[in-house]
TrEMBL record:
GO terms for molecular function: DNA-binding transcription factor activity; sequence-specific DNA binding. InterPro entries: CdaR_GGDEF (IPR041522), Homeodomain-like_sf (IPR009057), HTH_AraC (IPR018060). Keywords: DNA-binding, Transcription, Transcription regulation. This is Helix-turn-helix domain-containing protein. It comes from the Bacteria. It holds the Pfam family HTH_18. Residues 259-357 form the HTH araC/xylS-type domain.
Amino acid sequence: MYHSLTSGFQWSSSSIVQIDTIRVNAALIYWVLAIEIMNETDASSDRIAHLEAGLRRWEKQTSAFKDRVLLLHDDARRPVLVFSDYEPGTDAVRLRLWAAIKAELESALGAEMNIGVGDAATSVAALPRAFQEAKQSAERMFYADAPGVYAFYPYAAAATNLVDPFEEAKVVEAVKLGKHGEAADLIVNAFERIKRSGGDKTALLAACNRLLGQLDPAERATETFETVSRLRDWMLERLASVSIALNKARKSPDDQLIDKIVAYCANRMGEDITLQQVAEFAGYNKAYFSSFFKKKVGESFWDYLTGVRMAKAKELLETTTLAAHEIGKLVGYHNPSHFGKMFKQAVGRTPAEYKNNMTGIVR
């Protein structure tokens, strides 16, 4: 019956609608509620069994409306309710009723859920249509950024241009020119427009994949996004990843080597780094390496390394309770006296004076 309702296949001739499983009465009005349990896309078989048990518990509970509700499902994560009544009631009354059903189910299952409600059906034969409307209503959560109860209304298809919502040419140009901030702003602004006006989720995902494909054919949105904000954040992450990769590709071999040297020093901050070691790492002799580094960075290797070490020492003095000699070891100075001398020369104060001054500021 669930399959017939949700697909419409053989529904009108199905023997199911001829029996009293669904109350058949010309005076009745029907509503279909499409439910999605949140954050259960990758639920284990044990978790699904737990949800099924919760649905059975809910069916056995008594409530003022339980005799008017039929629960259908072949997947406990996406059950369907068929609600029938003799009176259509007001929108406010119905929304309170749907909210009460939602609260009962959430309590029974111990899980948050999103519900879409189709337009009223005046016959059992119209229930498959009402189910499709309920599914469409549930998708409004995607743009609202929060689960809830969403009643049916037709989307204004022309409200949002989902053919090119991101101004793809501008985004691609900004990324290729290394203007990541400009590209990110275009993405954020596009999602703000989309969130306000809505639109078809499938078309939006297609637009995202089309844009990503122009930047990197390997990039593609394959996961399910429950809200438009999650999709936006994912797009910004992928944009940043592509931008970083393109920036690396644009860098000259010399610049890439400097990046590796910087990382080498950062990873060995506490070691007794020698010029010979770093020169060998770079593949040069000491004399050439010294000249090369100063030309590319603008200061000698030793001035650079001392600056990096002092910056890290100041950070540790500000954020930890470590003693000065302990911090000295962490940044590569194993002689406390030498560390103190180098720190004062660079900062103008001893480590103790610097820490006391910072503590005074905090107080």
